Structures are given as C-alpha cells and as structure tokens.
Amino acid sequence: MNTSSSSPHLRCDDVEPGPVRHVRVIGGLSECPGCGLYQRLPDLDPGQQASCVRCGQKLARRRRTAPLATPLAFCISSAAFYLAALASSLMTLDVYGRQRTVDLLTGPMELMHEGWGEAGVLVGAVTILAPAIAIGFMFAILYAASCRQLPDWAPRVLVWYDKLRPWSMVEVYILGIFVAYTKLTDMAHVDVGPAVYLIGALMLTMAATDSTLDTEMIWRHRRIDSLTRAEGDQAVEVDYVHVDDVGMPPVDHLVACTSCGLVGELAHPVSNLTCVGICPRCEHKVWRRLPQSLTRTTAFLIAAIVFYIPANLYPVMTFMRMGGGGGHTIVEGAIELWMDGMIPLSLLVFFASITVPMLKIASLGWMVWQTWHGARGHLVARTRLFRVVDMVGRWSMIDVFMISILVAVVRFNAMASVTANAGMVAFAAVVVLTLLGAWSFDPRIMWDAAGRNGRVVDGLPPSVLRAQVTRDPGQTTPSPSLSPVGTGPASMEPDQA
Ligand SMILES: [Zn+2]
Ligand SMILES: [Zn+2]
Hints:
By secondary structure, the protein is α+β, with helices and mostly antiparallel strands. It has helices at about 70-85, 105-115, 115-145, 155-165, 170-185, 195-210, 215-220, 245, 295-315, 330-340, 345-370, 380-390, 400-410, 420-440, 445-450; strands spanning about 20-25, 30, 40, 50, 60, 90-95, 100, 190, 225-230, 235-240, 255, 265, 275-280, 285, 315-320, 325-330, 415-420, 470. It folds into two domains: about 10-60 and about 215-290 and about 465-490, no CATH class; about 70-215 and about 295-440, no CATH class. The longest helix has 30 residues, at about 115-145. The protein starts with about 20 loop residues before the first strand and ends in a 26-residue tail after the last strand. One zinc ion binds near residues 34 and 55.
C-alpha cells in the first residue's frame, strides 16, 4: 500500500459498534458473492478455477494465456473494429429503385427526431458510447498492469470497468440487426454494409479481451502493506496475514470488498447495514452486503411490473407499406415472424422479448418474497436462478435494437415507413428496470435470511471449508457439495429445510 495523500484508508465515523482501530487483511480467504460463505481459496495453477463449495459460484480462475499481451492484442483489435464500424455503413435498403443507407448513428438519431428521446439515448448509450468507454478503460487497465507499481487511479478504473461492461450490448445489437434484416428481406432488396461484419468482429474481440484478462493478477499486483493513517484523531492500522498462519477468524468479524474481493477482519462483529470503511486495496466503500438491496430490488421490480402492462398492450412500432399495414405489439411481432415461416427467429424473439422479461420479473419477485419471509428452501436453486436471470436479462433489448434499425432505414414516405410507438419505450423501461433490479439484488441476503451464514455453517466450522478447484474453466460444472479440507464431499444436511 502506498502512503500518498490518496492512499487507502478506513473511515471511522460510520462504523458500528465502535471505531475501527485495526484491520487485519486475511489472505487465502474468499467470500462467495453468491451465498456469502467464507472459504479458503487455494493457490491456482494456470488453467484452473475455484468454485464455491456450497452454491457452485465461480470464485477465481487463472488463465493459461499471457496475462497482458493477449488481452492487449484483443483490445487493440476491438478499437480498430469499433472505429471502422463507426465509419462504415450498416445497411442499404432498395425500395423500387429508391435507396437509403444507414450507419450506427442513424437509429438513435431517428428515434430522437421522432420524439422518443429516451429510447434514442438508451440505444446510443449501449451500442456506441458504452463500448467506446469500455475499450478506453481496458487500455488504461492494461497500461496500469504493465507498470511496476499499480498507479493509484487503476483500481477505480477497474471497478468502473466492471460496472460499465454489462451496459455495452454489442452482442445483443448483432441479433437486433439480424432480426431487422430478416424482416426487411421480405419486402425489399437489402445490402448488408461492412459495419455489420465489423460489429460481429468487435463482439468477439471484446469477449476475448474479458476472458483473457486476469483481474486476480492485477489485484495481486497491488501490494498491501501495514499502514497507519490518522483520520480525525483516529489511527487505523492495516496488516496482512494468511489464513493458513492465523486460522479462520470468527465469520461475523469478517467483511469482503464487493469490488476486489479483499477479506478483512475487524476486532468486533460487523453489521450488515453500515459502511465499514474504505477498502485498503481498491478504495471502494466496503459494505458487508449491498446497501438496501432488498428494498431497492423491490422498488425496481414494482416499477418494472407497472411498465410491463403498457409494454405488452400498446404497439411497439407501426409498419406501413403502400398505404396498408399498421401497428403491432411485441407478441404480434413474434407471431408475424412465425406466420412468415421464420420459425427459429420467431422463437428467438419470443424467448428474448416475452419469456425473459416474464422470467426475470417472476424470479426476482420469488427471491424477494422468499427473502422477506426468511424462507430456508431451494437456496442453491434460487442462487443459480439469480445467476441465469443476471446473465440473460440484456438479451431482451433485441426488439428495441431491431426497431431502432427499422425506423432508421425504412423511410420512403407513402411507399414504406416504420415508426416507433409508445409500447417500445415502455418495453425498454421494463428491460432497464429489471436489469437494475437484478444488479441491486445481493443473493447473499437470501442465505442470511435463512440463517445459513452464522458462526457454524451447516453443522461444520467454517475453518474447514475450502473452495473446489477444477480444471478447464468453462467446461467443468462443479457439483455444489460442502467438503472439508483434505477429505471428500462431506455428508451435509440437505439444502431444503
Ligand atoms: Zn456460494
Ligand atoms: Zn476492494
């Protein structure tokens, strides 16, 4: 840890039950972000990953690839593909000899011209702005990781990158283009522009950058030394020990940083409800659980349900051709594709636009309800369902992207035109609200509410729990069964009470 003016410190003014005078950072220990179980994290060899022994959540992995050169190569490619995509055309539509060419920017601009400013800004932000910032942040992170001492600004950029990355929806946009293209080939001649292939390539290189970047390596690169820093009249010392040397501290004295995963031990039990201080490694505020997780998720969920009704009742767009046609809703759009014989595409739209939002609202509602009531059943299933909901939520944007492209390209006055309708804005609101609902939900509180994160975890002292190590990341699915150090899977009480 450095000792400059911006050096990491613990803030003492808002800590319960007494001021923090000393914090011990515990190495070799990890808290599962899925269920809140503290467990030992063994050193990993390249190509290995560690998963939670209770819920199967991935805790850490080590890449086989070169830690800096590989993501840098992909990041440079991403930047090149991104700039080329911005400068080239997306699609050219030919209706009876009249042509119209659009690029990436046309869709958001046309939505704004038509008076759907919120939707235009949203589409522009997640398809143009967010990828650009993500690529810029990644360059900064890789530069920082190549320095001998990690610069002070680097942890914050890494934290912001993690927050921003899900908003970059290039891969969903590709599917939106595909659905729009299929709808258009039905009525006119469509030429696909180079931007489509460039966005496809950008999707692959951005995914490859993420999968080859070793954030664990970067955090390890930032040393944690003992530090005494006065805040007001308080001095806070931080020292570093390894769990193998000191043994497992009492679980209720432990707190893990939600941004970088650093585990610290305080001299007294830590409340779930108050900010403990500032992380001595990434300078993020440390809370034992995400603040107001349950109430925030409930609020987002209620708002999403309110918007869900107009999103399905009102037309999302109006397709006029030679004086005929009319508005259609999300469901009618999927049915129309089915009637036109495009059954796989119709199923895709049905899944992304109808099943996923319903699944998200119903699942989050079930989790919130169970947590409010302290239910003890189906905890592993609920935690896994949360991971699925978290992963698939962005794909519902397909319809919004498709409409933004159609609105931009089909503008031939009386011959053919597409306009967006109020249903699309309500639908986009449902998608964004359910995303925010999922991101503000802390799945660990389900286990807290069921009383499964106490000093004794499911009949075993937490000191014997160790993360499960498997080979070939992404190909092995570890079965969640609690296993003590040095022995096989333990016989545990079943998950359901
Ligand atoms: Zn877990
Ligand atoms: Zn941290």
